[in-house]
Amino acid sequence: MYDTACAAGERLAGALGSLATEGAESSDALVAHLVSEVGGEGGTLADAAVRRGVAVAVRDVRDRHPEMDDAMNGDGAGGGFAWDILCDLYQVFFADMVGEFLRSVVAEHVKLAAPVLIATDPEGRIADWVAENVVDLVPNPCEESAEATDLAQAVDTAQSVVGAAQDPPTTLPKIAESLVPRAVGKVLGLITEEITGEEGAAA
Q: How many other C-beta atoms are found inside a 10 Å radius of the C-beta of residue 155?
């Protein structure tokens, strides 16, 4: 799961710049674009969780940001999505990917002990568990950029924080990509900590 999640996160980071400038015509088009860009072609539970996580993340971020519909209807100022929306999408994607992976584990009756709270009521508790325990663990690229005293440390360039503010389509995807290992480690680490039984976390 770790390698699959990291690869998907890196692909998502790479897609953020185009979404900031071009947006999407509809939520269906956005989901299709991201599934194609991020989802990969593998057939494992982890691969399927990535693809479903993309679709769920788009839905969840639309619930948080009704203004996404304005951007998709052509009412946005620049035609693309604002960076606060894209940074939320980044965070929510990792959380929803974990949620969809756990749903797959339950649905397929894989011999893996899911977190206690999910195992006791799988259908009713997975989404709540993810919302309460996972989303806030994922680093937010926008916040990381704002808090950085030297952007070069985050994106391995000679640009300053001022440069980031001037050209976020270039710098923020790089920051997002640099945060992927930490994001995946956080969300999968939580699953490992919550595991019961002797099987451990699924690979």
A: 22
How big is the chain, counted in residues? 203
Backbone conformation region of residue 76, classed left if phi is above 0, alpha if psi is from -120 to 50, else beta? beta
Q: At what angle do helices 2-22 and 45-64 cross, to 10 degrees?
A: 40
Q: Report d(CA 12, CA 37) in Å as an integer.
A: 7
Tell me the pLDDT tens digit for each residue of 81-125: 989 999 999 999 999 998 888 777 766 655 444 555 455 555 557
pLDDT by residue (tens digit) across 9-21? 999 999 998 898 8
Q: What is the DSSP string of 37-99?
A: HHS-S--SHHHHHHHHHHHHHHHHHHHH-TTHHHHHTT-SSSSS--HHHHHHHHHHHHHHHHH
